[in-house]
Write a structure and sequence with these properties.
It is a single chain. Helix 2 runs antiparallel to helix 3 (36-62) and helix 3 runs antiparallel to helix 4. Mean pLDDT is 78; it is low at 1-7 and 209-236. The protein has 2 domains: 1-83; 104-236, no CATH class. It is built from 11 helices and no strands. The longest helix has 27 residues, at 36-62. It has helices at 2-7, 9-31, 36-62, 70-77, 79-82, 87-98, 132-139, 143-157, 171-196, 200-203, 211-218. With 236 residues, it is mainly alpha-helical.
Length: 236
């Protein structure tokens, strides 16, 4: 028990420092963004901090291991909405589906991907999957764009999505979806454009820092399967 009490303050450090660093990088980019070196550095650090916040703060909070207080954990999960995702639908996908049915086809929603990516040995096989070790790394910079602006909306509005097996989405979550996505676009695209006069494309540059870590984590650079019966290397 004494050891647990000694280690517990570490959770406070990461719980508050990572979100603060993210907001600080954004403010520095806005205030000193006339220097393109400062702007790109700030936004690149924001991309890294998206990952750090997700893994060290949001993921821990959704499992109620960040704080002893359940309400605080639920509050910090909503920081995901500020980062452009949807905390409700991700909590459903991750806790109720991924952890209850890990690596189970048609139940683990973490593997509900585009048909261009084949991660299950029993999934439908197409000729282009022989080359996914070549084209998937090229598409990975678009991973977060797909998550924020396509996949979340599919889960909310497409009836055949896997999350529909375990939940009926409350009406208030539809409101929160559009409000938070709109807020994300305002602070990340419109405010930099108005304050600094930069293009919309530059405002999204920090998102490109994230997907390459995911690419390495899934290890999709291994040799792809040649036949439908072969085991794919990145299905571990």
């Amino acid at each position: 028990m004494a050891r647990a009490k000694k280690e517990f303050p570490d959770f406070y450090y990461k719980a508050f420092l990572f979100p603060v660093f993210y907001l600080l990088c954004y403010c520095v980019g806005i205030v000193a963004g006339n220097s393109r070196a400062i702007l790109w550095t700030s936004y690149s650090l924001m991309g890294i901090l998206v990952d750090l916040n997700f893994l060290n703060v949001i993921h821990e909070a959704v499992h109620h291991t960040l704080f002893r207080n359940r309400t605080l954990n639920q509050l910090f999960v909503h920081f995901f909405d500020i980062l452009g995702a949807n905390s409700y639908i991700w909590r459903t996908r991750h806790v109720r589906m991924h952890h209850n049915y890990p690596n189970v086809l048609e139940w683990d929603s973490d593997f509900e991907q585009s048909p261009m990516a084949r991660v299950f040995p029993g999934a439908p096989f197409s000729k282009w999957h022989r080359y996914q070790h070549i084209y998937l790394p090229l598409f990975y910079p678009l991973f977060l764009f797909n998550w924020l602006f396509i996949r979340d909306f599919k889960d909310f509005f497409r009836k055949g999505q896997l999350v529909r097996k375990v939940t009926e989405i409350p009406e208030i979550e539809y409101v929160k979806l559009f409000v938070c996505k709109g807020f994300f676009i305002v602070y990340l695209v419109l405010i930099p454009k108005l304050v600094l006069g930069i293009g919309c494309a530059n405002s999204f540059c920090f998102l490109y820092s994230y997907p390459y870590r995911e690419c390495l984590r899934f290890n999709c650079l291994d040799n792809p399967p040649r036949r439908a019966g072969q085991r794919i290397s990145c299905c571990r």
